[in-house]
Design a protein that fits this description.
Elements: E1 3-6, E2 11-14, E3 18-19, H1 34-47, E4 51-53, H2 62-74, E5 79-84, E6 86-88, E7 93-95, H3 99-113, E8 118-123, H4 132-144, E9 148-154, H5 161-164, H6 170-179, E10 187-191, H7 203-209, E11 213-217, H8 249-254, H9 256-268, H10 275-284, E12 290-293, H11 299-307, H12 315-322
Parallel strand pairs: 3-4, 4-5, 5-8, 8-9, 9-10, 10-11, 11-12
Antiparallel strand pairs: 1-2, 6-7
Helix pairs in contact: 1-2, 1-11, 2-3, 3-4, 9-10
Amino acid sequence: MERRTIGAAALAVGAVGLGCMPMNWAYSSSRQRGEESLRAVHRALDLGSTLLDTADMYGPFTNELLLGRVLKERRQDAFVSTKVGLLVGEQHIVANGRPGYVKRACDASLRRLQTDVIDLYQLHRADPEVPVEETWGAMAELVQAGKVRALGLCAVGARGGRRSGTRLHDATIRQLQRVQQVFPVSAVQAELSVWSPEALETLLPWCAARGIGFLAAMPLGNGFLTGTLTPGEGFEPDDVRARHPRFTAEMMAANQPIVAGLRRIAARHGDGVTPAQVALAWVLAQGRHVVVVPGTKQERWVTQNAGAEAVRLTEQDLAEVADLPGALGSWD
């Protein structure tokens, strides 16, 4: 698989990574099976999808524990990315950016992952009660202590910015400008997909201009862009899509033209090319500093996603994607 570099430290990873969250968090719990997830992680590493993206809150903690079982055997094959800054309660999630907590959380993640160093340590969310410079400074001390190789920041997920007249990623860029004064940012993780292209406006160019890697989260639109979901089929109550404004039966039906457009492009690239691979190839085409991180817990989807790296979209393909209708949500 093609290798791409993250940040000034030139950390090399496969162009297609593996988002590990669905294995233990946010999606239907009845379909989460540890052995199946382990096979998916091993398959990703076999195919060169070296970036394994997790977080201490996924589970919580169980996703790191699962990855630790693989890393114990195959640490040299993997690029480990985990996150800090969010605490999970029974019915809520809160931010914690206190320096002492960050250092303790890192040590706990290292134990669960069964490794002595984290390749990329990301701030999941800034704590509004703690200056972000203080949190980032504690993370920088972890680099100096040899426990972490590089630091990353996850974008503020405020969709409401589109309705208030502000650009979606203005708050994230302000945070980045602040923490860059403390210690270099190697990577930024944010949603980027055919149906959520907002990062193209300001955030992606901001990263490119500074040599910062961009980890494209949810590049398959929470599974919608695969074309495998049926409108009206419904989701389990613990599945995040059960409350997502684009995943009501009505909106899933209304957004089918997006999937149809991806299917048309896939058909031109030959048998076996899927809408999901076209969607991932489109994200990869946005810049050499972009790494896609599709999430899955199944080996077959890992294999399909890795194959997207070989799909080369033409100018006609890219123009057709640009002409696809914008995604609709229940707020529209």
